[in-house]
Amino acid sequence: MSSQVLIIVLFSVVVALTLGITIWASRQNRSAADYYAGGRNFSGLQNGLAIGGDYMSAASFLGISGSIALYGYDGFLYSIGFLVAWLVALLLIAELLRNSGRYTMADQLAYRMRQVPVRSAAALSTIVVSIFYLLAQMVGAGSLVALLLGLDSPVLKNTVIVLVGALMIIYVTFGGMKGTTWVQIVKAVLLMVGSLLITVLVLAQFGFNLSELLGAAAEASGQGEAFLQPGQLYGKNLAGQFDFLSLGLALVLGTAGLPHILIRFYTTPTAQAARKSVLWAIGLIGAFYLMTLVLGFGAAALVPTGEGSAVRESAGNVASPLLAEAVGGGEGSIGGAVLLALISAVAFATILAVVAGLTLTSATSVAHDLYATVVKKGEVTERQEVRVARIAAFVIGAVAIALAIPAQSLNIAFLVALAFAVAASANLPTLIYNLFWRRFNTTGALASMYGGLVAAVGLVVFSPVVSGAPTSLLPTADFAWFPLNNPGLVSIPFGFLCGFVGTLLGGRDGSGERYTELQVRSLTGAGAEKATSH
Amino acid sequence: MDTPHPQVHQRYEAVAARPEFDELRRRYLRFVVPATITFMAWYVVYVACNNWARGFMNQQVVGHVNVAVVFGLLQFVSTFAIAVLYARYSIRRLDPLADELREDFESGSARGVPGAEGRGR
User: Which of A68, A444, B96, B114 has CA 20 to 30 A from A139's CA?
Assistant: First the structure.
């Protein structure tokens, strides 16, 4: 049996398994808390796995190991930012948010601010971040699956995008948070087991000696020790150095402001369980990124990565699958075909779990923030709200498919970093001020949300990402006056500054009185939402 | 914002007025503020060294392992360590106070104060 057939069989197994979970979960969804928050009944370990499943995208599974395979040490830097970021979530956000919110990021702001304007702003930011992230994932999915099947046909890529989009709509519409969470748990387990297997096989080839692995990678790369040193990818000139600093800040401060991560904290019964889930997530994500280090250097050592190689042509994305084939016995061997198919199926499951989480997050915000509060002013039943969430999931999924198909010809890899920059510039300042600053008010919240959002997106529009360079989105135009590809260095302080100035300009609007309540509730859990019992 | 329920509001105010609540808030901030400053500074120093201290980062430590790789791995170690320290600290120093205050708040609802559970609908 060829590896293509095996890959298709395993993809089908992943689809069947996840659809089975969705059907099971759809029978459990009774209330809004079930649909939006999985009944708040997930344990710390379960939610920790789901966080890992939500967070470790194909970009980090295939992208980081591929980047290490091509650029050595610098490829590793993304993963460090991605991990350290979880301390912000653990120390400052997870428990306080679990205690003070219900279903969306906006709940926690609406607690003491004027509902309609802050929910509109938070919903806009949620949808922008989620759609950016979602588009990057879906476009990646098309080319990835084509690559794994070894067929470079536009029809196949479009079919894959439609299939991924349709599956994600089904998971979210029918399975809600419960279905999505279990899809993410299954994916996280597959990802950890698959990565561990390949990692052990790679390390075994080098006598479990990191130095030997690094030495072999450096030698095979043709760069020598420079391959193991900073500077292959980032910081080649002064602009590049500040760009790297800017990226690093957005990665560390963005994670705790990603709406699809924030709503995961609502699925646990208590703040203590939310804390435990972040601890599990830190352990899993940290272990995973350590394994990608081995996978990346392993691929550099064992798989051809020179000019014209499959790894370089795919920008590193096939480094892990080809490494799996190599350690399984090489091309043409049964072991190689099995491991290649296995890792490809893990990558496919990874894409499905991440896009489902993003769609659910947007749909929840549309239904709970925009429809129930802004449109209906709270005069709405739970049943109506959940129906709107399901319709929204369908519409968002359809829009994502419609945007992803034409976007394939564009260089949109920057969208993931931009999603982190918006989360760090708009959402994090607002959340931090709301939790820790009594004087913060509605004007301040709107200023930091809109200010951070406009600054992050606006600076990217006027950066070399969009115009003025051969790799730009619009390579023929040039209106780039902002020198950095990553806006975080400017837009994050700007978001904080806007929140500060807006608060001073806004005057007292009663939000300070409710602050005492928010503080008691967020720190003690007094009056916090309970798990549903059934 | 939601319309505040006066009686519920009073019960929150009552918790906030207790010395145990001040103590809880003080203990929480005493851990998270220094910890956040530490890990952010440590991370920014690491990023800056990648940019501006390459001579230092390129030194070999053992075999092919250089300072940059060790520094990167130490970011993992420090993240795991701060997470574990916070978990232990919160179980020992925060949870008992938070549990006590929450139980007192909620026993108020058992005495029939309306709207005690399910704020913010």
Answer: A68
Return the closest-CA partner of residue A263 out of A58, A458, A35, A515: A35
Residues 6+ apart with CB under 8 A from B111: none
Within an 8 Å CB–CB cutoff, is residue B83 touching chain A?
Answer: yes
Q: Which two tokens stand for residue A261?
A: 């991560």
Q: Do A212 and B63 touch (CB under 8 A)?
A: yes
Which stretches of chain B score pLDDT less than 50?
A: 110-121
* Residue in A191, A167, A164, A136 with CA at minimum distance from that of residue A415: A136
pLDDT classification of A3: cutoffs 50, 70, 90: confident
**A520: contact with B, CB 8 A cutoff:** yes
pLDDT at A478 over 80: yes
Across the interface, of B51, B84, B116, the residue whose CB is closest to A244 is B51
Q: Which residues, at least 6 apart from B34, have a Cβ–Cβ distance to it below 8 Å?
A: none
Helix axes B67-89, A77-88, angle to 10 degrees: 20
Domain ranges within chain B, ordered by starting residue: 6-110
pLDDT at B114: 42
- For residues A365-391, average pLDDT: 93
| Residue A388 phi, psi dihedral angles, 5° rounding | -65, -40
Residue A213: HSE in the Cβ half-sphere, 13 Å Cα cutoff: 25
Cβ atoms within 10 A of the Cβ of A156, count? 15
Interface of A with B in 193-212 (CB under 8 A): 210-212
Q: Write down the pLDDT at residue A55.
A: 94
Window from A3-12, A41-50, B50-59, B108-117 with minimum mean pLDDT:
B108-117
- Listed by number, the residues of chain A in 218-277 with a beta carbon closer than 8 Å to a beta carbon of chain B are 218, 225, 228-231, 234-235, 241, 244-245, 248-249, 252, 271-272, 275-276
Mean of pLDDT values over A19-28: 92
Q: Whats the size of chain B, residue-wise?
A: 121
DSSP bridge pairs for B60: B66
What rounded mean pLDDT belongs to chain A? 93
**Phi and psi at residue B61, in whole multiples of 5°?**
-105, -65
Q: What does the pLDDT average to over A162-173?
A: 94
CATH class (in words) of the domain with range A3-408: mainly alpha
Separation of alpha carbons A76 and A73, rounded Å? 5
Distance CA A51, CA A258 (A): 12
- Region A191-215: mean pLDDT is 96
Domain assignments of chain A as residue spans, ordered by start: 3-408
- Sign of the Cα pseudo-torsion (A503, A262, A486, A249, in order): positive
ipTM, 2 dp: 0.94
